[in-house]
Here is the input.
Amino acid sequence: MIHVTEAAAPAAKTPTLPDAQTVTEVRHWTDRLFSFRCTRPASLRFRSGEFVMIGLMGDNGKPLLRAYSIASPSWDEELEFYSIKVQDGPLTSKLQHIKPGDQIILRPKPVGTLVHDALLPGRRIWFFATGTGIAPFASLLRDPQTYSDYEEVIITHTCREVGELQYGKELIESIRQDELLAELIGEGFADKLRYYPTTTREESAKMGRITDLMRKGEVFEDLGVAPLSPETDRAMVCGNLAFNLEIKDMLEEYGLEEGANSKPAHYVVEKAFLD
Ligand SMILES: Cc1cc2nc3c(=O)[nH]c(=O)nc-3n(C[C@H](O)[C@H](O)[C@H](O)COP(=O)(O)OP(=O)(O)OC[C@H]3O[C@@H](n4cnc5c(N)ncnc54)[C@H](O)[C@@H]3O)c2cc1C
Ligand SMILES: NC(=O)c1ccc[n+]([C@@H]2O[C@H](COP(=O)([O-])OP(=O)(O)OC[C@H]3O[C@@H](n4cnc5c(N)ncnc54)[C@H](OP(=O)(O)O)[C@@H]3O)[C@@H](O)[C@H]2O)c1
Here is the structure.
């Protein structure tokens, strides 16, 4: 028998991206929403709630980057992101097609206002989100500090359609069953977490914009809590610009003052995207 040995073809040169991280998991939630996980640079330290710049190499050979909230908590060995798919969006028209093994660019400089350090101590914390604005809260809700700092944690999430709530719904279910959090905070920690999802354009158990439901007092009745007060309540807000402005006015009317890293107060706000 004649054996023909062939020299292995030279390995294709792997393109090296600056600040490259490898995608490990992708989940599509709706035709407009997906989440993915990727490797975390060993040197990346961040505070739960912060955002980083991520992206892909553009056709012009330059990185195409956008701000993204880190949805995973600071203790997680990987990073998670929750993303919109804008069909003609420069980044997400491409990013929505990533698969495990692909590389993304991640600039390791986390920043942001939705951090515990920007708030004064309080009894109850409210996380108010619309759409992908739930992403920073997916991080904060998995951070043990949230439960050690507050007696009660309320997350409200308003979306147009029921399917857009699914990421948050599964997140809350997984947190309630999280053994590590139960061990760190105590078995009763899950009772501290209240979840208030609402839809505006498709029928669901609770319909309406959270702002309208607060004005009507329905949220407080449903949850059995008093309206917000600066003595007891702290809030973080992340949604579209109109929502952020509207709820900011409402929080001020309740007597809460806006905080910052440099001057902690009662509430903080961040845009979920630029309009
Ligand atoms: C501080 C900050 C944090 C952000 N965090 C996230 C995040 O965690 N997840 C995320 O998906 N996006 C997030 N964004 C938005 C993100 O930076 C990009 O805009 C988004 O990825 C779309 O990029 P693009 O290049 O495809 O389109 P772009 O040109 O950036 O946007 C095109 C249009 O799409 C709409 N749009 C953009 N982002 C969203 C969105 N998230 N939800 C609904 N409509 C949107 C807007 O109308 C925008 O004008 C964040 C933005 C900011 C400022
Ligand atoms: N979600 C979709 O199915 C869809 C489909 C195609 C295109 N788009 C486009 O994508 C962009 C973003 O859509 P999105 O649905 O992700 O985000 P969005 O428009 O920010 O809406 C998310 C949620 O926030 C609510 N909201 C908006 N303004 C508010 C305010 N001032 N106070 C309280 N709640 C408020 C909306 O209620 P309302 O419904 O009452 O506004 C909706 O329930 C828009 O430009 C949209 O035209 C969305």
